[in-house]
Design a protein that fits this description.
The protein is an alpha/beta fold and 309 residues long. Helices cover 31% and strands 19% of the residues. It contains nine helices and 13 strands. Helix 2 links the parallel strand 1 and strand 2.
Amino acid sequence: EAGLPPGVLNLVIGPGPTVGNALVEHPTVKAISFTGSTEVGRDLYARAARHLKRVSLEMGGKNAIIVMEDANLELALEATLWAAFGTTGQRCTACSRLILHKPIKERFTEMLVERAKQLRLGNGLEPTTDVGPLINEAAVRKVHSYVEIGKAEGARLLCGGNPVKVNGKGFFYEPTIFDQVRPDMRIAQEEIFGPVLSIIEAENLEEAIRINNSVNYGLSSSLFTQDVNKAFQAIRDITTGIVYINHGTTGAEIQFPFGGTRGTGNGHREAGLTAIEFFTEWKAVYVDYSGRLQRAQIDTTAFGQVPIQ
């Protein structure tokens, strides 16, 4: 409908072992943009390198929201609920860790749990639904396995923690919040990709930033504060590809580069001008109209000396 010539855009649907492998191995495919898990991305990157293919990877995330003592707590609350549970945790930028400044931790946790218990599960296409289903039964099992891991690690389950049905069907999971989570716990380090949020306490902004940066992923981070100095300190020291100030970890502007560091990406970015750069092959053209051989770029004699007037 947009007027693209035939063959410019093709949609092929199929499983990774067949369609994915064909794209990686085929000699006429020059560039691959991959979105998926870090494990698959690393394997794809290594295999594509043997064919000298250009590869852009957008992989996992373990995104954190930091809330400081001076933050607008009502705004931070709404942003956290949306970032952690709004899409059932099934987006690469979903918030999985909540790093709370100690002076407001107890109060904010109470606010958060009270609201999380009120979230309505159901059909994601219905305007009355707050939390939709997980993608399939395997995802429910994975999320529940991490909830059990969190319990075994000694984290305190504040709400949720159970798979549920809505009207007797569907792959739903209750919005789940853990407290007393240490930064080195598996539920604080590994991507769950579900509605599970881990609360971690920090004494100050410096500790909060260290905790934020301590995971193997580096996609999206968020800081809530009304102190401009703290905001710019976080912008400087947070090591993720995306940083939000007074906004949750989800959402993206199409004109900005999208992507992350460490186990999230390999240096390329989606969206914005940087995405165009990835899909562009540069060609340098030199045209010599002097009729003389240029011996090097520093040759100052080919055209003769130009006197200074």
